[in-house]
Amino acid sequence: MPDSLTIKDSSIHGLGIFATCDIPEKTDLGIAHVRMIEWLSFPQGYCRTPLGGFYNHSDTPNCTLVDSGIWKRLVTSKDIKKGEEITCKYTLYEVGQT
């Protein structure tokens, strides 16, 4: 988990990812989803629990998913303030799509 993020209780649902500092627009926060075949080749030193298990849905998200081939990366779509929850619009992609 990057130092700029933490996981804690969310008012949206269950747990969520929150900014521990201000994060500028277009910042790559890390891997959100991994195709199962690639799980064994996950990069050394990375958290093996993708961020996609913790971010919540919003109709006005502050992040988007960017397909990098092997995995989807969570990238900020606007400036995020310290303490703000990281969200993504679930309907912007389909599970199983590459």
From TrEMBL:
From the record, give the transmembrane residue ranges: none
Q: Which CDD domains match?
A: SET
Stored SUPFAM superfamilies: SET domain
Q: Which positions fall inside the SET domain? A: 3-91
The protein's name is SET domain-containing protein
- The scientific name of the source species is marine metagenome
